[in-house]
Amino acid sequence: MQHTTKAAVIGLGSMGWGAALSLLKAGFAVRGCDVRGEVLARFAENGGTPCTTPASAAEDADVILVYVVNSKQVEDVLFGENGALETARPATVFLLCTTMAPSATTAIAEKLESSGMLVVDAPVSGGHVRALSGEITVMASGTPEAFDRASAVLDAISAKVFRLGDRPGPGSQVKMINQLLAGVHIAATAEAMTLAAKAGIDLKTLYDVIRVSAGSSWMFENRGEHIVSGDYTPRSAVNIFVKDLGIVTAEANSVGALTPLAATALDLFMEASQAGLGLEDDAAVAKILAAKSGTILPGVKG
User: For 116, phi and psi rounded to 5 degrees?
Assistant: First the structure.
């Protein structure tokens, strides 16, 4: 197994930022690319090498992690002008960490492999706190060679790597199912907290009870706290679930599966986005339900 020491992270949002810092802590030389100058400056302060283009980030990298928002952005940062493929060396490993439709992941992976690259379909889960501590979950699929070459990077950024197949695609399929559950659980959390507020229940008390009871979920524990504190600083934005639940419902329709709960949750996220909440924390869907219910949540002006 070849040990890798040079990594590049394209997209320094909450998850990409956590991965980049985890790699730095593990002793990697890390180049980070982002469109935001203030993020690049902060990355340099933390010991990374800031890059303004994917091409400059990809130079000399053994492994390139892609953490942009959607498949269109993945195509742009890989194959577009000043894209990573312009400078990446043959047999560089690309970790595709963006949540995409499985069909999009497969097409992008095939294009990379035809250019002599190795690919791991590697969507991630766990939230920004676990990303910062290098404890995310990776739902991965790819060739044994790609896994071997990327093993040190995967060890640095994750607590658990599920190897789901020897070709790109299964990783994105499993992440799609995860996002179905995550989106529905966020919507259910928003509904539960709004009902509690309308009924006059103290939300902090309710949160403390439910989080240790059978009705809890990881999303309730995480997003419920956001609602209780009235903190809608975006860790994962409303618009992310417009995209992800859109993938779920489109893929379900293509195979003839019924996803009524995902469809209802998607409608709520879309309504929140159209109301101007798209860049707020995804727990902000509770604001839509609260307004319709005639109740006021913590931190929200009446």
Answer: 90, 15
